[in-house]
């Protein structure tokens, strides 16, 4: 049972284990309405009280499903975040739905827009899909060169700095949201944004894990200086820290390269020596940092929730972490 909370900015309390609802949008596999309810019920019964979604997930489907679930619960009992930076435009024909990793998404087309009006429209659209459940945190979604390329990102970033952030600041000052964040997969844009904007927290996927330590080289210290909290997603690095080094294992949304597989084999050897499961260590690792408020997990299967809770409750000795640190070394130091 997940009962422990970490206080964010002295105002928000997040359960240390939280639920990322990308799976409810049919990420990689179809998820029925019944499946969605079952996995959310399992998360709630486990004590998870922080839920994150985004317009992009299933092109609105994730928000709709999560909103229906939370609408029957007291807003004071949970925390909810969604994301801004994409608008959803309806399409007339199923054939016009853009191809993506989401199976059976809603008939919408995502369009990037980080401008003042774009952020405001995105937020209003999300409120409708979320059944007007109060939104506590708004994350700026996928800003950065990883998503947009160097040239494309400069215009989007300028739109954000010159207009989009003003919209978020207004929403926060008016009490429509409690915190402003970034939801990204790269460290460089976090450092840049913290230098230019007042960012309360960062949802960072895949860059502070048992394997990928990119965030250790500058970001953790910057978060401490700025008073910015971290929520860590992608703790399995797209799969390999859950499956181990198996044929076809994925890392960072692609087949794992040989040097990554070799490093994971070494981590598995340490796990064997200390009788620790690799997946358990992957879930527990981020909370070693005092800058991390919550670890985000995502699944479309109710039975997987209990596995994550069991992993989260695992007792892991300090000597195990030391041995892993020696293997991973300076990962990300050149990022």
Automatic annotation (TrEMBL):
Pfam families: Aldo_ket_red (PF00248)
Location of the NADP-dependent oxidoreductase domain: 16-327
Lineage: superkingdom: Bacteria
Protein's name according to its UniProt entry: Aldo/keto reductase
Organism: Thalassospira aquimaris
């Amino acid at each position: 049972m997940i009962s422990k909370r970490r206080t964010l900015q002295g105002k928000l309390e997040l359960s240390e284990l939280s639920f990322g609802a990308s799976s409810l949008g049919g990420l990689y596999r179809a998820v029925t309405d019944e499946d969605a309810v079952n996995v959310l019920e399992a998360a709630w019964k486990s004590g998870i009280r922080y839920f994150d979604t985004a317009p992009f997930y299933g092109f609105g489907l994730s928000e709709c499903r999560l909103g229906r679930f939370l609408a029957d619960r007291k807003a004071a009992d949970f925390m909810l975040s969604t994301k801004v930076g994409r608008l959803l435009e309806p399409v007339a024909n199923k054939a016009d739905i853009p191809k993506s990793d989401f199976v059976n998404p809603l008939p919408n087309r995502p369009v990037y827009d980080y401008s003042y009006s774009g952020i405001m429209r995105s937020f209003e659209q999300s409120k409708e899909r979320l059944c007007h459940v109060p939104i506590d945190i708004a994350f700026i979604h996928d800003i950065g060169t990883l998503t947009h390329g160097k040239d494309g990102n400069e215009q989007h970033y300028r739109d954000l700095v010159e207009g989009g952030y003003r919209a978020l600041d207004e929403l926060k000052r008016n009490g429509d949201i409690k915190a402003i964040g970034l939801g990204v997969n790269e460290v460089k844009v976090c450092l840049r944004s913290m230098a230019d904007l007042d960012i309360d927290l960062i949802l960072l996927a895949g860059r502070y894990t048992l394997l990928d330590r990119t965030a250790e080289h500058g970001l953790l210290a910057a978060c401490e200086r700025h008073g910015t909290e971290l929520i860590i997603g992608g703790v399995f690095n797209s799969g390999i820290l859950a499956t181990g080094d198996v044929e076809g294992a994925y890392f960072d949304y692609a087949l794992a390269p040989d040097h990554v597989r070799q490093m994971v084999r070494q981590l598995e050897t340490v796990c064997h020596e200390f009788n620790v499961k690799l997946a358990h260590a992957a879930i527990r690792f981020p909370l070693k940092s005092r800058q991390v408020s919550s670890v985000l997990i995502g699944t479309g299967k109710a039975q997987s929730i209990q596995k994550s809770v069991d992993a989260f409750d695992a007792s892991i000795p300090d000597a195990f972490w030391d041995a892993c640190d020696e293997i991973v070394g300076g990962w990300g130091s050149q990022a």
